[in-house]
Design brief:
heterodimer; A: 658 residues; alpha+beta; Four Helix Bundle (Hemerythrin (Met), subunit A); Alpha-Beta Plaits; 5-stranded mixed beta sheet; 20 helices; disordered C terminus; B: 178 residues; OB fold (Dihydrolipoamide Acetyltransferase, E2P); globular
Chain lengths: 658, 178
């Protein structure tokens, strides 16, 4: 088999192993459904089959035993319970290690092999031995008296087989996993004389007698990869196939049909290709904007019309392309089932993970980058959040703690919540610690949320003892930094004695946003459109009073505002008319005063150089239709900036943030 | 790559190593090694970035990428010259370890590309030069005069400039412009 297929095998196996894990965890929680067992069996079976093709005997041997046990569970001769699920989970991990070893190119690790042995012993102690598994499997009502039908397989490989990168031996090896090879005869009639012998051609054929309970289809399927490169004949010899076997064959066909139809609906695409496509669409959006502007200048109505149609199409293409990158967060959440189970066991707490909003979609790169911070938060919740069983009992809570992961869309961003029903944060302890660490001098004037925000400061940790899991003083600040790097924010709610909720707010995508273009003097800025609520004109009474009053009456509500010109110390003088863009962000409403409202646009985000990594209030840049660059406002940090400015004005003291 | 190609390539490289672009800042002539220069653009006003120190002029659009533009006069602590017809933006690529940075540099005028052999380059004077000594790679002798060969990696050191921009940005926070 070619090496180029190996990465696919590894990727596929890992995916199957993930499914297997999810199903096993379900079983372990006592929800043993036929669907779960089937999916575990299918995963094991497929991995065994594929690794046979690659001649990975170690994986085949180990997985075969696991598969036999699973087959008995499927046939209801063995009961799936917590203990068995736990052992199977360990077996799954072992298969994963084996696959990883193959990926690292170290498939003959002695340590792994011994671990495999001991696991199999454990499994057979619970399920009654691999050999026993075999016999019982064949006497189950599903395949009774199938008693290893004898098959005669005649296969003549074509000369091209080796050149196509196939190894005939691997197929025979794989046959060995379907049954016992009783006899094998090498057919050498086609071998030419020494002078005509081509070392790269295959001249061999085989006649194999196979004792197997598998269907004809399954046996033929073993040669699927060389179907075009060999002449194959599979005939049954001797024993008659019983009706039940026929039934089973039918069932198998149905099963494979079902899995095939779901296969054909999805397609595995290289991530780099997608990125390239998104890049190109970004350029297309920019080019389209240039065309629209030129057309408007030319004043040809037909041209205008067609550019509008083009713009609409480009917009649709963009949306579809971005959707290609969107994946559901569910699989990421289910990975935490395992982490919660293992960590909770390690520290002896009873904890259940609940998840919600698994179908919420977000950008794939975001999901990848958010996994680490999430893991940290979940571990934190288990380690520090949830109390020990005794404490919980004494507080009249359910002994079993709950960690909850939730995801939902909220006004153009995705919110991921990590909540626990543990002890909550103790305000006094946080303030005491912050003073001790020199982060603040006096905590009495802080609001609760300001106090809780302190735990995101570098070098802050409230855990009294350093455990294996967390509490080394690095942590929450790293979480905050990682989330900020994704243009997201972190906030925290906590009630002492009732629990803590950490909320991560992320943008939907990293590549393109809908923006609202505004002008101040000669500069243009883009405000993310989803944050804009409305635009109102700034009345004259506020314009002349350039002094203290920085709020207007917006239909009876107070709306504080900032002047972008002052905020960014832009040199241009104020224009005759000014407008307020009303923005809602993180539950607050503020106004941003600008000179011109230039309308909606699609902004392809171009990251700024590292030189500007510490800049606040600006999240990136984008290219306007004219080829000029405009800056994209980062409203969250702009808001922070305003708040800090206010605080320093009111009572000069050390800024809390950064 | 074949042996001959390697030799040719090597010779070309050595040849390029001795090539410098000279340009004018104020009344002085400076030089930059040609290998670090990607291209020279006609001056177009960069997009200003708020709250940046004077030596950062802003960003320009270089075929779809936002490239920061540095005012060398300001970086050397001198007043910036007015923009004229001759003003150019020289796009320079610096490499620190594995990271490469593309930065534009505003110069008053570009002169020529010329060869300065190693024997014609004197070490930087320890004092007396008009700019920081560590910015100077060497003093090249061209037609009986000295031109200052700049050390691009230090003049355009991203770490140093990043710290300066950060200081400027947070300075504005403490004392907001009224």
């Amino acid at each position: 088999m070619t090496d180029s297929a190996l990465p696919t095998f590894i990727a596929e196996s890992r995916e199957l192993l993930r499914e297997m894990e999810a199903a096993l965890l379900e079983c372990e929680q006592g929800e043993t459904g036929a669907e779960a067992v089937n999916s575990i069996f299918r995963a094991a079976h497929t991995i065994k089959g594929s690794s046979g093709l690659f001649g990975l005997d170690g994986i085949v041997a180990f997985t075969h035993v696991v598969e036999s046990v699973l087959d008995r569970v499927r046939a209801n001769t063995l009961q799936m319970d917590r203990a068995l699920a736990a052992i199977l989970l360990e077996c799954r991990d072992h298969i994963e290690h084996l696959v990883n070893a193959v990926a690292d190119g170290k498939s003959d690790d002695v340590q792994l092999a011994t671990r495999g042995e001991s696991l199999l012993q454990k499994l057979s102690a619970r399920a009654g031995g691999p050999a026993a598994a075999h016999t019982t499997a064949s006497t189950t009502p599903v395949a009774p008296a199938a008693g290893h039908a004898l098959w005669r397989i005649h296969v003549q490989f074509h000369a091209e087989v080796l050149r196509n990168g196939m190894d005939p031996l691997s197929f025979i090896r794989y046959l060995g996993t379907l049954g016992d090879i009783v006899a094998l005869k090498l057919l050498t009639e086609r071998l030419p004389g020494a002078e005509e012998f081509d070392a790269e051609a295959c001249y061999l054929g085989f006649e194999i007698e196979l004792a197997s309970s598998e269907s004809q289809q399954r046996i033929e399927a073993a040669f699927e990869f060389v179907r075009d490169d060999c002449t194959l004949q599979v005939r049954q010899k001797g024993t008659a196939a019983s009706e039940v076997v026929a039934d089973r064959r039918e069932a198998d066909t149905k099963e494979s049909k079902a899995s095939k139809s779901s296969d054909s609906r999805s397609l595995r695409v290289d991530g780099d290709k997608l990125d390239k496509l998104i890049d190109l669409i970004g350029e297309l959006v920019t080019a389209g904007a240039t065309t629209t502007i030129t057309a408007r200048k030319a004043g040809l109505s037909e041209l205008n019309e067609s550019t509008l149609r083009l713009a609409r199409l480009v917009e649709e293409v963009r949306d579809q392309a971005l959707k290609l990158r969107m994946v559901q967060i569910g699989p990421t959440f289910s990975r935490f089932q395992r982490i919660v189970r293992d960590v909770a066991r390690e520290i002896g707490k009873e904890i259940r993970l609940e998840t919600g909003g698994a179908e919420t979609e977000l950008d794939k790169t975001l999901i990848e980058s958010i996994t680490d911070p999430l893991t940290h938060l979940v571990r934190n919740a288990i380690d520090h959040g949830i109390e020990t069983a005794e404490v919980r009992r004494s507080r009249g809570k359910n002994v079993e703690g709950v960690v909850r992961l939730d995801a939902y869309h909220d006004s153009g961003s995705v919110v991921i919540e990590v909540a626990d029903d543990g002890g909550g944060l103790k305000r006094e302890r946080i303030i005491a610690k912050a003073i001790e660490r020199g982060l603040i001098t006096d905590g009495s004037s802080l609001t609760d949320s300001e106090a809780f925000a302190l735990i995101f400061e570098p070098g802050f940790s409230t855990a009294e003892q350093v455990t294996n899991l967390s509490g080394r003083g690095v942590g929450m600040d790293v979480v905050k930094r990682n989330v900020n790097a994704l243009r997201g924010t972190v906030e925290l709610d906590s009630k002492e004695g009732e629990g803590t909720t950490v909320r991560i707010r992320l943008p939907l995508t990293l590549a393109i946003i809908d923006g609202f273009l505004v002008g101040v003097g000669n500069s243009s800025f883009v405000i993310p459109l989803e944050l804009v609520e409305e635009c109102v004109e700034l009345g004259d009474e506020h314009r002349s009073a350039d002094g203290d009053q920085r709020y207007i009456n917006l239909r009876g509500a107070v709306l504080p505002f900032v002047r972008l010109r002052e905020m960014f110390s832009l040199r241009s003088s104020a224009s005759r008319r000014e407008s307020i863009v009303v923005i809602r962000c993180a539950g607050q409403r503020i106004g941003i005063v600008v000179d011109d409202l230039l309308g909606e646009m699609q902004a392809v985000i171009k990251p700024l150089s590292r030189l500007f990594s510490r800049i606040r209030g600006i999240g990136g840049s984008t290219i306007l239709g004219t080829g000029q660059l405009a800056l994209i406002l980062d409203v969250t940090s702009l808001l922070d900036l305003c708040l800090n400015t206010r605080q320093t004005q009111a009572a000069p003291r050390r800024a809390l943030m950064d | 790559m074949s042996k001959t190609a390697e030799i040719v390539d090597d010779a070309e490289r050595r040849h390029d190593l001795n090539q410098y672009l000279t340009f004018v800042l104020g009344r002085e002539t400076f030089a930059l090694g040609i290998l670090s220069i990607k291209e020279i653009l006609e001056y177009s006003a960069p997009t200003e970035i708020p709250m940046m120190p004077a030596f950062i002029r802003g960003v320009v659009n270089l075929r779809g990428a936002a490239v920061p533009v540095v005012d060398l006069c300001a970086r050397f602590g001198r007043p910036s010259a007015a923009v004229t017809k001759k003003t150019c933006i020289v796009i320079v690529e610096t490499r620190v370890e594995d990271e490469s940075h593309v930065i534009g540099v505003v110069v008053d005028a570009v002169n020529e590309v010329l060869e300065i052999p190693g024997t014609e380059i004197e070490p930087a004077p320890s004092f007396g030069a008009s700019i920081r000594a560590d910015f100077i790679e060497g003093m090249g002798k061209v037609r009986g005069k000295f031109v200052i060969i700049l050390a691009a990696n230090r003049v355009l050191c991203v770490e140093e400039m990043e710290m300066l921009t950060h200081a400027a940005a947070s300075g504005d926070v403490v004392q907001p412009a009224a």
